[in-house]
Amino acid sequence: MPPTRLILYEDNAGLRASLGQFLAGAPGLVLVGKFESCAQAGADVRRLRPDVVLMDIDMPGCSGIEGLRQVKAVAPATSVVMLTVFDDNDRVFEAICAGADGYLLKKTPPARLLEAIAEVRAGGAPLTPAVARQVLRLFPRPGAPAHPPRPAPDLSARELEILGLLVEGYSYKMVADKCFISLDTVRSHIKKIYEKLHVRSATAAVSRALRDGLT
User: Fold this and answer.
1) 149-177: string of b/e by CB count within 10 Å (b at 16+)?
2) Residue-wise pLDDT tens for the chain (215 aa)?
């Protein structure tokens, strides 16, 4: 896979500089832009063509949620991972509804941040465990009448196990370690899970699992 082109939006000058320096030196990444405001996010993305955007959710003037909407309006295939200080339920819900591909706390360790960028580039939806717990509360529990019943997907025991770990907020690497399998095997299982659930992201798979009581 070619290097991942990355844009960072962060209004805190110190954090923007330190995080930008870290990302610029990371193997497999090319930091093509870092900005204190996302007011021109749509134009930035058209000009710089990133694969992944790291977006601070709390910025003055134009919020990260609005920046996210701008990115998705001009480049739907660009992955956007939201960065936040607080795992606030309302913000999580609003970001997911606006098309966020991942949601991480700013205190996420650097190694996990790099893993999350690789994960979202591969089609995953990185969530820290604290945020994953918030996501669990956003969807109806099994038995809720909001959706008609669907045919149960033909998931294998291993696929159900991996889906359950995704629901709990595990990353691909954490799933691999937990199940004693390789990352490539995890990706293969998750691809099959997506196909059987008729979804295209981990967030959608988690939603389906919770809504239909699959785990």
Assistant:
1) eeeebebeeebeebbebbbbbbbbebbbe
2) 789 999 999 999 999 999 999 999 999 999 999 999 999 999 999 999 999 999 999 888 899 999 999 999 999 889 999 998 866 666 777 787 788 888 888 888 888 889 889 888 887 777 766 666 666 665 555 444 444 445 567 899 999 999 888 877 777 888 889 999 998 899 899 889 988 988 777 767 777 787 777 86
SS (H, E, C) the chain: CCCEEEEEECCCHHHHHHHHHHHHCCCCEEEEEEECCCCCHHHHHHHHCCCEEEEECCCCCCCHHHHHHHHHHHCCCCEEEEEECCCCHHHHHHHHHCCCCEEEECCCCHHHHHHHHHHHHCCCCCECHHHHHHHHCCCCCCCCCCCCCCCCCCCCHHHHHHHHHHHCCCCHHHHHHHHCCCHHHHHHHHHHHHHHHCCCCHHHHHHHHHHHCCC
Single pTM value for the model: 0.66
**Residue type, position 108, single letter:** T
